[in-house]
């Protein structure tokens, strides 16, 4: 397009000005006026002391990209570890509840107040199977509850309690095993004394009686602690009980009878403590010796079971700590996203 020359009089400079229509090129050249103004604004801010405003203007696009990328980030908490711990601990929780319920029911059936009164009877209550069920079940219940709810609800306090309890249990087992190995002779003597207390309380506690019968008849095939004559320390089986008409005097429990004789005669243990009585129908070896022999014969399975339990405990400790660290990392991310500066640039 031809240019049109128009002569005008400039009041200030008395110069001639040529006016022509704007082309597309001229339009593109005039577009960056906003950018020029922004540049002038940054220059003026740089020459001034308003560094905070200058930082916001320059870093706003970068913060916007970071916030957008953060919104698309996945959670720090691993769902695999979370639900694996939940599944394992809910079984542990239910199992602990059932064990505690069985122990409480058995203890109530044996008269609760009498069992409390036995606390001063030479420590025999420690070997009460019902009480052991109660204590172990309650302990398992609380640990399972902390692990189950802590992993499901992502509660760091419950996970810390769960982790701390497992560490204490693992260290206690390690210390106990070390002390048993170092002081094995002393432990053996103390165990022998406590087993004699159990024999003396054989008829006083039905649960203890059933446990001793199971050990002698089905597991170790033994009788007494060191020999079958240890049953003389029991009031009911002592030969002096003949004076009061006890039919079990100078005898041993029926669980001491050998299997081939027990089925035909459940009174095969009567009178076996007398000097002239035969002992071919009962087990004569003590349970302490038989337990030592059984352990030597099954040393490899016992070690494998102990190793598996130790590995499970260590893995549980590691998973609980890992899950707790992930939860803390996720909370730190939330705290950063809700920071006033991030909220300012997000808007």
UniProtKB/TrEMBL annotation:
Keyword set, alphabetical order: Membrane, Transmembrane, Transmembrane helix
GO CC entries: plasma membrane
Biased amino acid composition, Polar residues: 1-16
Superkingdom to which the source organism belongs: Eukaryota
Record field: transmembrane: 83-108, 129-152, 158-183, 299-323
Keyword Glycoprotein tagged: no
Ranges for region Disordered: 1-37
Family: Belongs to the tetraspanin (TM4SF) family.
Name of this chain's protein: Tetraspanin
